[in-house]
Structure formats: C-alpha cells, structure tokens
Specification:
This is CitG family protein. This protein is mainly alpha-helical. The chain is built from 15 helices and no strands. 48% of the residues are buried.
C-alpha cells in the first residue's frame, strides 16, 4: 500500500485512542493530567507523521525510526512521553503495512521485521529511552542512565529483539514483539466485534477494559507494583459483569477512582492504538 495511506492509518489510530472516553485512569478528551494534556497527544500524533511515512517506505532501521519518532513527538509538544510504547508497536506494523494487502501478511511481515533487528537498532532504541524519559525496569544489567550501557550492548551483540526477549516476561509491549503481536490482533478483532453495536468510542472503551482485565498493565507495575496491577485488572473484570448500563456506569466511577489514585494503564492504551491501526489498515471506517 501507499506509504502515505499507511502513515495516516497510524496517525488516526493514535487520535482515536486518545479521543475515546472514559478510559479509566488515562488522558482523553475529558481528562488531563497536571503536566500532560489531551492536546499534547494530538500534537504528537500530527507532528510524527513524516516519520511514520518514512517508516512505511523503509525496510530496515526500526531502532532509528523509533528514536526519530520520539524526537519528532517532543518537538511538537511539552507534555513529555505521550506515545513511546505506541511507537514501539506502530513502527514495525507501519513498516509491514506497505508490503501487504491483507491482515495475515501484515502480521507475518511485522513478526519478520522485529526478528531481523540489529545491534544498531538496539543502540538507537536505547538512546530513545533517555530522550522520552520513560520510567522502566532495567533491562538485564543495562542502566538507562549509564552511557556505558551502549558499549555493553555492542559487546554482547544484543539486537533489539534480544532486548525485547529479556523484557518480555514483565513488559506488555516487549511481549508483543516476542509473541508475534498477539494482543494487538486480538484487540483489533475485539473492537471490530463491538463497533457496529456500540460505535467507535464505546467499542474502544469496552475493549480497553477487557484487555486491562486480562493483563497486568506495565505502567502500573512500574509505578506501583505487581500487586497493584493485579488489583486493577480484577476491578476492571468485575465491572464488565452485568448489563450495559451497569458496565458504563461502573467504568465512569472506575475512571474517577484511578485518576484520584494516580493509576495510569498506559500500556493498555498502546495496545489499543496498535489494534486500531490494524483495523484501519483493513479498511475500517466509522
């Protein structure tokens, strides 16, 4: 497909995700944080377009593309890390998109792209972390604040896929690379199944809740701990029991609670963005 078309699918996916409300604990068109606002996410999604278009026309250099996406995003807004996790998922999907005409091909090509990453991709990705100022667990013995870690990556011959394998047991986004974007394509199916009956907004919100109920969100585990992430998933699952009125009322209350607690299921939102990209690639319109 045309690189411009693929890039617009990715851009629209980011905009649709941040616009959907209420997504408990996350920024949306009705909720801001003190230092990060809805408009920052819009600016990031629009500003990063040239990098997405470049990715759609590229066959390699995934680490550099993620690094450039983070850099470009920060030029257009002052809200900090808006889409780092989303870029990690979107860039390989976008690179795959221009090679494909159907979803089966998209998944296969994305898997191939991430497995063929290089040591230089790992270095570029590592540099992107410090620029995005993302709070993460250390990867093996690699300290993100230590520039000497780049030399360790080179000495150990770690590719970017190797680094994702190290993190995959506790990081939802890394796990997607390792497991062939399994949750991403499940997410696409979940939204697709709901959109006709519920419309795009509620389809996204309900899918967000389902994914959160089934997975310990990495953002929550990093900011708090595993126990807190498990508690949030359990609460999300309980809300989804009952009729639609009860569910939507429960989601609104849950949203208020998580915002007050400072709990942000950001990795779940990144999966939603990737899933929306898949649907837009397939031709979804609303």
């Amino acid at each position: 497909m045309n690189p411009s078309h693929i890039a617009r699918c990715a851009q629209l996916a980011m905009i649709l995700e941040v616009s959907a409300t209420p997504k408990p604990g996350n920024i949306d068109r009705d909720h801001n944080y003190t230092d990060t606002r809805f408009e920052h996410f819009l600016a990031s999604a629009v500003g990063v377009y040239p990098i997405l278009e470049k990715a759609a026309a590229s066959e390699s250099g995934i680490g550099e593309l993620i690094h450039k996406a983070v850099t470009e995003s920060s030029k257009w807004q002052s809200g900090g890390n808006t889409h780092f996790g989303a870029f990690i998922l979107l860039i390989p999907l976008v690179m795959a998109g221009s090679r494909c005409e159907n979803t089966t091909c998209l998944k296969e090509q994305a898997q191939k792209i991430v497995r063929e990453t290089t040591v230089n991709d790992a270095v570029e990705f590592y540099l992107a972390f410090s620029k995005a100022k993302v709070k993460v667990k250390p990867v093996d013995d690699l300290d993100l604040s230590d520039t000497g870690s780049i030399e360790k990556i080179k000495e150990q011959g770690l590719t970017l896929f190797d680094m994702m394998e190290i993190s995959g047991s506790y990081d939802m986004i890394a796990e997607e690379w390792v497991n062939g974007f399994e949750k991403t394509f499940e997410c696409a199916t979940m939204i697709k199944d709901k959109i006709r009956k519920n419309g795009i907004n509620d389809a996204v919100v309900l899918t967000f809740m389902e994914i959160l109920s089934r997975n310990k969100d990495t953002f929550i585990q990093t900011k708090f701990d595993t126990k807190k992430a498990e508690e949030i998933s359990m609460r999300a699952g309980n809300i989804l029991k009952g009729d639609m009125n009860r569910i939507m009322n429960g989601i609104c209350k849950f949203d208020e609670e998580l915002l007050n607690e400072g709990v942000n299921p950001g990795s779940t939102a990144d999966i939603i963005i990737a899933g929306l990209f898949v649907l837009l690639f397939e031709g979804m319109r609303f």
